[in-house]
Amino acid sequence: MFANTPYISPSAFKRPHNLKKMSRLARCCRWAVHFQKLHHSHVQTPSFLSSFSTSASASTPTLHSPPPVRVELTEYAGRGVFASRRIGAGELIHTAKPIVSHPSLFSIHGICYLCLRKLPNRDSSSGASQTVSFCSKQCEEQSKKFYDVEKKADWSRLNEYCRLQGLKYPLLVKRLACQVISRFVPSDVLDILQPEIPTSDRINQMKKEVALLRSTIEDSDIEKERMAFLTEEWYTGVLSRIRINAFRIELTVGSYEDLLSSAAASVIAEAAVGNAVYVLPSLYNHYCDPNVNIWWTESVDAKIKALRDIEEGEELRICYIDASMEYEARQKILYEGFGFRCNCLRCVSKD
Ligand SMILES: C[S@@+](CC[C@H](N)C(=O)[O-])C[C@H]1O[C@@H](n2cnc3c(N)ncnc32)[C@H](O)[C@@H]1O
């Protein structure tokens, strides 16, 4: 299983030339240590750690070969993902399972509560009295631990808060908190990801949210000591990482019926079925003319595919936003959402 985690180049650990490099190095070392801690942890190993798979051709993924990538420090953006061999256009580079996922409140009754797969004959927008469902015994089994915790509490206040404010990430934190309480993942599972630096407004908002989350869990019969991790510091750290690293999951259309319902959903609300955070996909940097693409077909399991031929040693980059947007709009969203100004060739030529 550990063999399937991406390779970190030893050169990333050698002869730092200056302090900036040393601090980047320290972050990279912490990341490697986290992988080891997770691997040796007595906590049940979550499925995302064994999820990397790759293939020589997109149609025949093999489960146990490591992906043809390595994680290294870049000159401009902390860590990045690089090709460890030549990769052909169209090749499925790897797949990934999420650390944490949650359906959007709009889709919640029409999709599997764990893998976000569409449930047959379900109208996603129907009544709030409906309970959530799983698409298979396997998803039900995998969710059992955190769902047993979740079922003990009344989440209506948190759901209402998210609905009114148009927020989705507190739902991911709620799910993660239930996973930690049920000992499905350690409380520091997201620490390997880069956090955003929150503004003071955001910090105040997060203080309110953690109070809401704590009081909801306190009102259930979960033992106090199992929620000791749930502090303002934990919530802020987790949400700051989710904000930079969460993916909005839009399933690619499979049938004519799917096409109609996704068209309807995009008019009524939005086409995303939910949000999720992964490990390896979160290490890809952004480029406005990307060489790889991340996409979802029937479930939350992500697929990373080469958009063109990639040489060994080339950095693999995805586009975080809608690449068809104009230069100014792209710069604004990247700066406000991800905290950086893009210097890619398209942006330099203001394309
Ligand atoms: C999802 S993380 C990507 C992995 C990250 N480099 C790391 O070390 O964990 C997104 C963050 O990486 C940095 N980043 C990604 N693409 C960038 C780019 N094209 N230029 C500058 N910074 C970038 C930004 O700080 C951004 O908020």
UniProtKB/TrEMBL annotation:
CDD domains, A to Z: SET_SMYD (cd20071)
Q: Which SUPFAM superfamilies match?
A: SET domain
InterPro entries under this entry? H3K4_H4K5_MeTrfase (IPR050869), SET_dom (IPR001214), SET_dom_sf (IPR046341)
Per the record, the domain of life is Eukaryota
Q: Where is the SET domain?
A: 67-321
Q: Which PANTHER family match?
A: HISTONE-LYSINE N-METHYLTRANSFERASE ATXR4 (PTHR12197:SF298), HISTONE-LYSINE N-METHYLTRANSFERASE SMYD (PTHR12197)
How is this protein named in the record? Answer: SET domain-containing protein
